[in-house]
Amino acid sequence: MSGQASELRPIVVAANWKMHKLRSEALEYLEDLGTWMDDHPRGLGTRVEVVVAPPFTSLELAVEHRPPHARIYAQTMHQSDQGAFTGEVSPAMLRDLGVDGVLLGHSERRQYFNEHDGALSEKVVAAAEFGLRAMLCVGETLDERQGGRAEDVVRDQLQTALSDLDVIKATSSGLSVAYEPVWAIGTGETATAEIAQGMHATIRDVLGSIFTAEIAERIPVLYGGSVKPANAAELLGQPDIDGALVGGAALEVESFSGIVSAGLDLVAGAGV
Ligand code: 13P
Fold it and tell me: What is the DSSP string of the chain?
């Protein structure tokens, strides 16, 4: 098992705004985050990567006002490059906007919008084809965990969604995985560092079986679910937790930058 802050994987701290912020609020946030990042250049963009995922209405603005070293992700996309899919947005359109990547399979998309693993496998491939970095979200519900099926559920989600992705593209496309236990999202209840680390180690094993162990060591696996500045250092300090996908605590620059700081401290402490 490789340690955190190894040379193999960056720490990725991602802000998922979900359905929040009008354009004026988005602009203020991006400018404030940019100022904060300008003041904390050491390690940013190299060892610690920052991602911001606004809703579609603020994507273009976010690309235009992208903070230094930050990447802009969409929160979802359709798998086809064009077609009669009212209300959807294609990978070609995201690429055309200058967006860097896309969240895929967020549990809220699975739960409320019927996004299923079959479509996700096509989306993962489409993202790679259009030069978009996919962040594939996986995670079990409370029932599944209480029924002792958490690992099987996550294993199945990974195998189905990633089975069609070319091995070479697994790293060259900038793929990452986010483990977000559904019971920890927006509830204030965080998986303990031990539970999260256990699942992340399983995820890395599964990635190793889908691709190769060497490739699995290079794919960042983020944790999401009630991450905040107060618990970020402990979570990010686990050997297989390579970042955080943050909802509520990412809506304000002050708390989001507190989580980025935890990553920067970790990297500085490891001397890499
Ligand atoms: P919270 O950080 O609000 O729990 O949300 C997590 C999440 O769903 C990020 O994608």
Answer: -PPTT-SS--EEEEEE--S---HHHHHHHHHHHHHHHHH--TTBTTTEEEEEE--GGGHHHHHHTPPTTEEEEES---SSSSSS-TT---HHHHHHHT--EEEES-HHHHHHH---HHHHHHHHHHHHHTTPEEEEEE---HHHHHTT-HHHHHHHHHHHHHTTS-HHHHHHTT-EEEE--GGGTTSS-PPPHHHHHHHHHHHHHHHHHHS-HHHHTTS-EEEESS--HHHHHHHHTSTT--EEEESGGGSSHHHHHHHHHHHHHHHHHHT-
